[in-house]
Amino acid sequence: MDRRAEDxxxxxxxxxxxSHLSVDPYDEPRIGGYDVIIRRISPxxxxxxxxxxxxxxxxxxxxxxxxxxxxxxxxxxxxxxVTAGIDPKDFVTTPVYAGSVAFSGQSIRSLNxxxxxxxxxGNPYHGQVWTTEPKKKxxxxxxxxxxxxxxxxxxxPGVEIK
Amino acid sequence: xxxxxxxxxxxxxxxxxxxxxxxxxSSRGLVSRLSTSQARMRVNAPTSPWLSELNQRFDEIVxxxxxxxxxxxxxxxxxxATFAANLLERLYVDSVPVPQLxxxxxxxVQIEWHVNGFDVELDVLAPYEVNAIxxxxxxxxxxxxELQTDFTALTGWIAGLRMAESPLVRMRG
Lengths: 162, 173
Description:
The structure holds two protein chains of two kinds. Chain A is α+β, with helices and mostly antiparallel strands.
């Protein structure tokens, strides 16, 4: 039975239990320098109070890669969502509501990071940002570089990006 | 948030015994329940006010549902949470505010302070695998440490967060 919704997405939770094999880190040439790369930000989990700056802001933890050789930082590739005829802002706020920030492909690559496709069950527009050496974590300058390059895509009211 | 109503994992702490990787499980302390197994995690009673205040937050981050980050994020692992709790128990300094906890999509957890002119972030990737940074907000100077067994350097960082040592506070005093 096809479980896909009319928009082609698989309903949340339908894929639990299915294994997902991450692709090896690579740099996808079809992702251009002006392409919009979206990173979801959890308003409940990624936001901290910064007493020094007297603001609520996104934690640097939101700009880190997962551990594991093939793991990177999860993102959504806007161009793929648009090509599929889906409203990207609607897509990245479901099924779990999240704020999100956006980077350009060029801004990510300028930090010596790779971007590639890594389709997930339920999210064929998923990609990852990887270090060019899989064993390495994002450096502090790469994390702060991502924060500096980020702009709100779906703004979380009252929260600063950095 | 207490997720016990969802039947997911619950994390309680009682005095973590830092530095003992075999502490899970111990014969004392309270129990964390996993909905799908008989698994139990026991740690000892907390003595520091930090852990008392963070009890509910630990509970929350180890109970996060799969996909909590909008992708395929998992809850903070018990081993990371326990190690983070033990680390905090050891690092506790009176008059330093309670830190904030931020989960990672991979089950790791970051401990953060942003007070007294410094950002101090301890990213607990796994037990005995901590990336630590301290940023001086005024000068933007950043120190980075990759720590595995010796966490002595952090004691000075945390002591520097004492609100009473703030230049502003000293001036007022």
